[in-house]
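Key result, reporting period 2: structure in, sequence out.
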């Protein structure tokens, strides 16, 4: 019985009324609880400012009330907030120039080490030439030489600053990272985020809660903890104060974007003088942006601007974590500064922060040298499975065909998983349609390779199971009695708990009495399940005095599962059902309540998982 049908590929206007898409929308995926749908769409109008005419990835939150489906909000995730690297100041601070020229700036009292600032940025922050930034090509004890000439030459009124986009850590702990040579202003980076760009801990990005001159304090803790190989950078999100402006320029002295990396992006004055004006960036240096037409009025020190990283490329094939906290996709767009390969890449978007992270890269953080397409995400989104024809993601990739790779965001590693039982590479291509168990132990895929297992003689695509814990590779698409199938198998999918694999096959000898002479869908059970994973990171907000019910959810583990409250307390009036994971009752008091729940399976020994959640009871 159909209770309600609703169109969900819509935006919302200021009154909350739906706005229909002006283009094609398709390829939806949905979370297990039905609260979120991701899809790709070419339709302008779903969100404000979408004018690129390309396919983008959208995430729509759904509400069910009284049997009626309604859209809560729609968000574009295949875009990049202005994740321009904010500079960490080296210990020179601000210096008044008494040496200058077309490519020079310096001060005769300085005692710099030769070329210590090569590759960093010099900025003129006051006086003649204010608002300019240039890359430092070399330096002597007193003078910096730029990689290109100043548009306006500095003079003895010019004040310059040296900044670095990345810094190798010599201060580190579970909750800190820093360098003894920095001279940051206390608290200046609070609320920003810090990336570990390479080395130990590569791929992590944490919130900065405090900073002094040399050290950033973060939350949550690093895992793994950085060391002296870790290279970090601070990231400022979305909004930047105007420190300098004229008819066609705006500048913010704490930025250090790459030269012209933001050309063709939209820049909007979002508050202060000139608010509401939108221009297209034609060229940019590290901290200033030259736009396509004059400002009217010209922004000033009250103005704040935002850069939108929309590009002309399209994004496809959305993949969701079960709680919709992360969205994976592949894109022709350049959505991260590390993406310099001009081919489709894999991205992971965090809808809560608007941050987008490149995933198709090697252990050193270098983007793939060939096109990549996304296959699947693990239950917590930490593992990203993708197909790529790149040859330099791992060592000894010599088969000249597409392979399947698994990127671990926490470890900063990428491994090839479409391998034979003895870990040798396959001699045939791998399909992009592949499955990954929620805990990341099992990978199911189809491949034309004939050397992944013994006696593969059917010269067709087969379904394989890779157990990364064993490790081992097994062919699943076998004929009765273990013989070779008489046709190909493809389109692989896997349940989140890893126990069941579905695939399409044109073979007629996988089961008895298959006389239909057409492709069929088959299921195979693996006999293996991942440990349990809690796949709910947010719960609907209760309202005081209103009956409430919400379900926790877990995948994996040996049933039945048993839920417990291990830390903190639920809001008064709410109770946890240990058998179902349901939280229900009548909330009695408004406020914010944080608690930790654990789920335990029935295996011997038992396996368990925990997660901290917060419920905010509305008055």
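The corresponding designed sequence is given below.
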């Amino acid at each position: 019985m159909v209770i309600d049908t609703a169109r969900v590929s819509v935006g919302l206007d200021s009154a909350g009324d739906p706005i229909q898409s002006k283009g094609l929308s398709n390829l939806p995926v949905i979370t297990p609880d039905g609260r979120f749908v991701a899809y790709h769409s070419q339709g302008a109008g779903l969100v404000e400012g979408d004018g690129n005419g390309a396919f983008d990835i959208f995430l729509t939150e759904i509400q069910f009330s009284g049997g009626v489906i309604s859209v809560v909000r729609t968000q574009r995730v295949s875009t990049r907030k202005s994740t321009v690297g904010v500079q960490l100041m080296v210990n020179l601070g601000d210096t008044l120039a008494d040496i200058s020229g077309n490519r020079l700036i310096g001060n005769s009292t300085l005692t710099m080490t030769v070329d210590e600032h090569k590759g960093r940025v010099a900025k003129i922050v006051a006086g003649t030439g204010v608002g300019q930034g240039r890359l430092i090509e070399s330096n002597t004890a007193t003078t910096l030489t730029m990689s290109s000439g100043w548009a306006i030459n500095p003079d003895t009124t010019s004040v310059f600053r040296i900044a670095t986009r990345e810094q190798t850590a010599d201060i580190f702990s579970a909750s800190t990272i820093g360098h003894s040579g920095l001279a940051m202003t206390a608290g200046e980076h609070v609320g920003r985020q810090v990336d570990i760009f390479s080395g130990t801990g590569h791929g992590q990005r944490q919130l900065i809660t405090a900073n002094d001159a040399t050290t950033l304090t973060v939350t949550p803790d690093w895992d793994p903890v950085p060391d002296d190989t870790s290279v970090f950078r601070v990231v400022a999100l979305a909004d930047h104060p105007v420190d300098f402006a004229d008819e066609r320029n705006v500048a913010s002295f704490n930025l250090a974007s790459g030269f012209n990396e933001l050309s063709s992006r939209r820049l909007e004055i979002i508050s202060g003088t000139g608010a509401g004006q939108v221009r297209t960036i034609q060229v940019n240096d590290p901290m200033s942006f030259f736009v396509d037409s004059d400002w009217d009025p010209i922004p000033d020190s009250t103005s704040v601007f935002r850069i939108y990283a929309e590009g002309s490329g399209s994004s496809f094939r959305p993949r969701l974590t079960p709680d919709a906290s992360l969205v994976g996709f592949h894109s022709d767009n350049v959505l991260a500064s590390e993406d310099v390969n001009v081919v489709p890449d894999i991205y992971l978007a965090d809808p809560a922060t608007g941050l987008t992270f490149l995933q198709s890269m090697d252990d050193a953080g270098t983007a793939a040298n060939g096109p990549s397409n996304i296959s699947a995400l693990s239950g917590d989104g930490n593992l990203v499975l993708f197909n790529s024809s790149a040859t330099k993601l791992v060592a000894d990739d010599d088969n000249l065909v597409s392979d399947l790779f698994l990127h671990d965001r926490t470890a900063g590693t990428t491994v090839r998983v479409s391998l034979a039982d003895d870990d040798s590479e396959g001699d045939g291509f791998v399909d992009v349609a592949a499955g990954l168990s929620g805990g990341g132990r099992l990978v199911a895929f189809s491949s034309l390779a004939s050397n992944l297992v013994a006696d593969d003689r059917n010269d067709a695509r087969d379904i394989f199971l890779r157990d990364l814990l064993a490790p081992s590779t097994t062919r699943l698409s076998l004929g009765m009695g273990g013989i070779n199938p008489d046709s190909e198998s493809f389109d692989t999918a896997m349940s989140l708990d890893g126990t069941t694999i579905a695939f399409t096959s044109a073979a007629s000898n996988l089961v008895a009495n298959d006389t239909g002479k057409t492709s069929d869908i088959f299921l195979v059970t693996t006999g293996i399940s991942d440990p349990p994973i809690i796949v709910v990171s947010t719960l609907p907000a209760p309202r005081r005095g209103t009956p409430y019910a919400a379900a926790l959810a877990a995948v994996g583990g040996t049933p039945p599962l048993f839920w417990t409250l291990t830390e903190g307390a639920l809001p008064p009036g709410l109770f946890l059902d240990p058998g179902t994971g349901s939280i229900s009752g009548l909330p009695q008091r408004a406020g914010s309540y944080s608690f930790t729940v654990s789920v335990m399976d029935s295996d011997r020994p038992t396996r368990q998982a925990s997660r901290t959640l917060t419920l905010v009871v509305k008055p």
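The longest strand covers residues 56-65. The two ends are 36 Å apart (CA to CA). This case is discussed further under Risks and Mitigation.
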